[in-house]
Specification:
FAD/NAD(P)-binding domain, 9 helices, 9-stranded mixed β-sheet, about 400 residues, D-Amino Acid Oxidase, Chain A, domain 2, alpha+beta, globular
């Protein structure tokens, strides 16, 4: 008996999730085509910002621990295959008040799962990581399995491996519409940057149409369009809010002075020392120490027009928090940049079928903490596409949970 032919699949959006899905499907011998409106590895979506934290002792809860353990192995395998490390195992710190809910969750998850987490007393902390200032009620947790991810390199690596496995890839290509045909999906696209207000006029499926619009048919489609997810799936426009993150980089003073801020001596982590002292911190990988202040993020009305202008009081607020909590950085950032990501009401992502288009699988709304789990989420998505089920525990990400 001949095996059933593999379905033809389109992956729309080849960024954080899309690059991993493309790689997963191509590696399984699936005829797959990726569509990306920019270049591979661009920084305009959820993969922007130079670095990402990886940790097993997770403030989002213990249900993620099995997924994170698998993700860590997947990142190591991907790095081995490309010959370029994607995960730097520098450890991940949680520093903050013992009464802070996130700190309590990290400590509880570490104990429940028996994680390789060391609680550092004040003397050991000052000896090993003297860059940090501790407040009276701060505790310090070092997740030895944590580390630093390189998002740009990871997206490029996954896409390159997918192409090597047979995937087709269209970059600088605008997908105009994704239409159910009854037996599959027709993808309407046009090579070139997005044109606002353009309506597809395909003039028949399967070939070139007027105005350079082309239509290609697939058995299934995966939508991984990040901040553009509400445009790709209009029903999610009210369920996934696109928010702007403002990130700051602080110069570390050159090669010799900067050595103490390198990943081997300054682990990535989060700080929870009171409302004004809550931020993520990242070691210097070439552009300085990155700091992401944990304050409410402003909504983005149009992802094509991300506002780069930062409120004048923002950088001073970040600088003040850094001065209170870290030693040896300058009194103001050397770079301030804006990025965006999609957030759901419960801060968990979405993996599920579009109820109006049964041949379309949607991935989005990963709420600022999806990158580290992208290889595992992509594996689950590939399972769902090909088998209709997965053994990976992602039921809590079902699209059906949303209103």
């Amino acid at each position: 008996m001949k095996p059933s032919p593999q379905p033809r699949v389109a992956v729309i959006g080849v960024g954080t999730m899309g690059s991993q899905v493309l790689h997963q499907l191509a590696s399984r011998g699936v005829p797959v085509t990726g569509f990306e409106q920019f270049d591979i590895g661009h920084g305009r979506g959820a993969a922007g910002g130079e670095t990402r934290i990886f940790r097993i002792a997770y403030k989002e809860g213990g249900d993620y621990v099995p997924l994170l353990r698998e993700a860590r192995k997947a990142w190591e395998r991907l790095g081995d295959r490309t010959g370029t490390p994607l995960l730097t195992p520098c450890g991940a710190l949680t520093v903050g008040s013992a009464q802070d809910p996130d700190v309590r969750t990290v400590l509880g998850v570490a104990r429940e799962w028996g994680l390789d987490v060391e609680q550092l007393d004040r003397r050991r902390m000052e000896r090993r990581f003297p860059q940090h200032r501790l407040f009276e009620d701060d505790i310090v947790l070092l997740d030895r399995e944590g580390g630093l991810l390189d998002p740009h390199r990871a997206v490029v690596a996954a896409a390159r491996l997918a192409e090597q496995a047979g995937a087709a890839l269209h970059t600088r290509t605008t997908v105009l519409d994704v239409v159910e045909t009854g037996t599959g999906v027709a993808v309407h696209y046009r090579h070139g940057p997005p044109a606002r207000g353009l309506s597809p006029d395909p003039g028949g499926a399967g070939g070139r149409a007027r105005d350079g619009v082309e239509v290609e048919e697939f058995d299934q489609v995966v939508l991984c369009t990040g901040p553009w997810i509400g445009r790709s799936v209009p029903g999610l426009a009210d369920e996934v809010e696109i928010r702007r993150a403002v990130l700051c980089w602080f110069d570390t003073g050159g090669k010799d002075a900067g050595a103490q801020w390198a990943p081997g001596r300054f682990p990535v982590g989060i700080r929870r020392s009171g409302a004004d002292n809550s931020f993520s911190f990242f070691p210097d990988v070439g552009g300085g120490v990155k700091v992401n202040l944990h304050v409410p993020k402003s909504p983005v009305d149009d992802p094509d027009r991300l506002d780069p202008v930062v409120e004048p009081d923002y950088a001073p607020r970040v600088s003040a928090a850094v001065a209170r909590c870290l030693r040896g950085l300058p009194d103001r950032p050397t770079a301030v940049r804006t990025y965006m990501d999609g957030y759901t009401a419960d801060n968990h992502g979405i993996i599920g079928r579009d109820p109006r288009r049964p041949h379309v699988l949607v991935m989005g709304g990963f709420s600022g903490h999806g990158f580290k789990l992208a290889p595992v989420f992509a594996e689950a998505a590939a399972d769902l596409l090909l088998d209709g089920r997965t053994g990976i525990p992602v039921d809590h990400l079902s699209l059906s949970r949303l209103s």
